[in-house]
Design a protein that fits this description.
Blueprint: H1 11-25, H2 27-58, H3 66-115, H4 125-169, H5 172-217, H6 219-227, H7 231-283, H8 289-330, E1 349-357, E2 367-375, E3 379-383, H9 390-397, E4 405-410, E5 413-414, H10 420-425, E6 427-431, H11 441-446, H12 456-465, H13 469-473, H14 500-512, E7 519-523, H15 531-544, E8 548-552, E9 564-569, E10 572-577, H16 579-585, H17 588-600
Parallel strand pairs: 3-8, 3-9, 6-7, 7-8
Antiparallel strand pairs: 1-2, 1-4, 4-5, 9-10
Helix pairs in contact: 1-2, 1-3, 1-8, 2-3, 2-4, 2-8, 3-4, 4-5, 4-8, 5-7, 5-8, 7-8, 12-14, 16-17
């Protein structure tokens, strides 16, 4: 399982991975990013050399050659223009490559997330921290590396020219500059390692901060936040997470400032040493005025190169280390072993045999030795208090997880043998925690069968089965109405929303879009409906959606007609049988049914 701390990978492997991604995203642009900066970087040095020749020619007095002077001036202007134009082109190419890499990297990242067949990774907080780092790596690492690549080539070309000129004037100066540069690069490496550790520490508190920020703007939570006066509490927690993040970043910034001050002092000492020596040599007549001018320009330019490249090197190296989180996600092992067999229509039934499951090692068992059968063509009701394991069993049936022990079989074959996507196409599910998408009413239903999401006739047919067709037709734009309070549609029209019960009917219609499915699973699908609407929908489903059903409900009246009722208690089967058999047994089901029936009975004190 990927963690929030990136896997340690050698820097050269990370660089190779980023380069491979960059070349794949924009091969021609990447090559141009290497070639154009060479021209942009070499031109200033060549222009400086021409300035030196010009100065020496002009200071020659009566021996000056006017033609040479004019030529040197023209060369200086042309080379300056070339450097400027090449710089603009290099900036454009850098931006183009960055955007291309961002597009490819983000596409790969979320394709990988979508490829996880189950929920184990997505319900793990450590994986969410890793994903946050990976997202940041996608946004920053390729861009930082591309900027560094372009500028390193450009500034490297500039430095190479000036170093050659310095070597011709006073060779020891090149050694002094290298001596000053080595500590700077070492310091950047150390700082980057510290920054990467700090980045991992920041992830959790930043995720908490963003959660409370989004909660403050969430229309769904706004009512309860105001009802219970939670605004100040959540605001305080958001600010606490922000201050924690600021403290971590401030420590990093203080260290960086002290480091930069030390390196600046070192550079000043080196430059001053070289400048004094060259000026004294010129005073003795060993060097010309042009040599001094060129030397000072070269020192300033090389220090400018270091000032530009070293911080960019630090950002690029930090991006490389951060890119390890991206690779963690891309290289993450599948959460489910993928079977390849086609899934036939259910003929015999689904057998659940000695099923054991818990979400994490060390956590309590959610299911403990559960065994029962869902015969093909029959309905099975699943009953139990909250936390009994009912919804978890549905996740296992859909292979969102694999059991820790036992097996679920489809017509005698283990679910693990089948293609996961094909298996899920054989199951229609409506749950109480359905998603209300900020999409049109038609899309909210049609997504139940994405391949037929534009089949308007079919969408209306299943909406009618779910008793919601009339409601949707009365919306401002009918089925084309955007169901949202925070977005507008393509025509700029405000969206609208539905009541909880209406949304639940939309969710039921969505599940009914899969007309060829073998099993219908209703996991508390009518919790937001009034009793009359609940009764009508159950009758409709019984008549128009015949076949195998798994019905889960706290309202025992909704499942009393099931062919088999299974009562779960703390992850185990407490009893099973028909409604009449369980009532005669006088066990847990009978007590629950009596309690609910008593709630509907008229109290003698209020009768009449």
């Amino acid at each position: 399982m990927a963690t929030a701390v990136p896997v340690r990978r050698p820097w050269y492997k990370l660089m190779a991975a980023v380069l491979a991604l960059t070349f794949r995203a924009a091969p021609a642009g990447t090559l141009a990013c290497i070639g154009v900066p060479v021209v942009a970087g070499a031109s200033p040095g060549a222009a400086a050399y021409c300035v030196r020749l010009l100065i020496d020619d002009l200071t020659a007095g009566r021996h000056a050659h006017r033609g040479h002077a004019v030529l040197f001036v023209v060369l200086v202007v042309v080379l300056g223009s070339v450097a400027l134009a090449a710089g603009y082109l290099a900036s454009y190419l850098s931006g183009y490559v960055q955007q291309s890499v961002l597009c490819l990297a983000e596409d790969r990242l979320y394709r990988r997330v979508d490829a996880f067949s189950g929920l184990r990774h997505l319900e793990n907080p450590r994986f969410h921290d890793t994903m946050r780092l990976a997202e940041r790596a996608v946004e920053t690492a390729p861009a930082d590396f591309t900027v560094f690549l372009v500028n390193a080539v450009r500034q490297g070309s500039t430095a190479a020219v000036y170093i050659g000129l310095l070597a011709a004037i006073w060779p020891p100066m090149t050694g002094l500059l290298v001596l000053a540069a080595v500590p700077a690069f070492v310091a950047q490496l150390m700082a980057t390692r510290q920054a990467t550790v700090a980045e991992a520490q920041l992830v959790s508190c930043q995720r908490r901060r963003h959660y409370f920020r989004e909660l403050a703007m969430d229309p769904c939570g706004a009512k309860e936040i105001r009802l219970f006066g939670l605004g100040a509490l959540f605001h305080g927690r958001m600010m606490a997470a922000l201050r924690q993040a600021i403290d971590i970043e401030d420590r990093q910034n203080r260290r960086a400032t002290m480091r930069e001050l030390f390196l600046t002092g070192l550079n000043v000492a080196v430059s001053l040493t070289g400048a004094v020596i060259v000026v004294l040599a010129a005073a003795r007549g060993a060097l010309t005025v042009g040599d001094v001018s060129l030397f000072l320009a070269a020192i300033a330019s090389i220090q400018g190169v270091f000032a530009a490249v070293i911080p960019q090197f630090g950002r690029a190296y930090r991006g490389l280390r951060l890119f390890s989180s991206y690779l963690d996600v891309i290289e993450e092992q599948p959460d489910l072993a993928e079977g390849g067999a086609a899934v036939p229509a259910l003929r015999q039934g689904v057998e659940i045999r000695d099923l054991w499951f818990r979400y994490d090692e060390g956590s309590p068992w959610v299911l403990r030795g559960v065994s029962f059968t869902i015969p093909a063509g029959h309905s099975v009701g699943l009953v139990g208090v909250n936390g009994a394991g009912k919804s978890t069993l549905v996740k296992l049936l859909l292979r969102m997880y694999d059991p820790d022990g036992g097996m679920i079989s489809w017509d005698g074959r283990p679910l693990a043998e089948f293609d996961v996507a094909l298996l899920r196409q054989q199951v229609r599910v409506t749950s109480q925690d359905f998603v209300a998408f900020d999409l049109t009413a038609a899309e909210n239903i049609g997504l139940g069968d994405a391949g037929n999401r534009e089949d308007g006739a079919r969408i209306r047919a299943v909406a009618a089965m779910a008793q919601v067709d009339d409601t949707l037709m009365r919306l401002p734009a009918g089925y084309d109405t955007l169901l949202s309070r925070v977005h507008t549609d393509d025509l700029g029209r405000d969206g609208t929303t539905l009541s909880g019960g209406q949304w639940q009917k939309v969710a039921i219609a969505r599940s009914l879009m899969r007309g060829e499915a073998s099993i219908l699973v209703l996991d508390e699908p009518s919790s937001g409906l009034d009793p009359e609407a609940e009764h009508e929908i159950h009758l409709t489903l019984a008549e128009r959606a015949p076949g195998t059903k798994l019905l889960i409900s706290h309202r025992l009246n909704a499942i009393r007609d099931a062919d088999l009722i299974v009562v779960l208690d703390e992850g185990q089967i407490a009893e099973q049988g028909t409604h009449e058999e369980l009532l005669r047994a006088g066990g847990r089901y009978a007590r629950l049914f009596a309690l609910q029936a008593a709630g509907y009975a008229e109290s003698p004190k209020t009768a009449g």
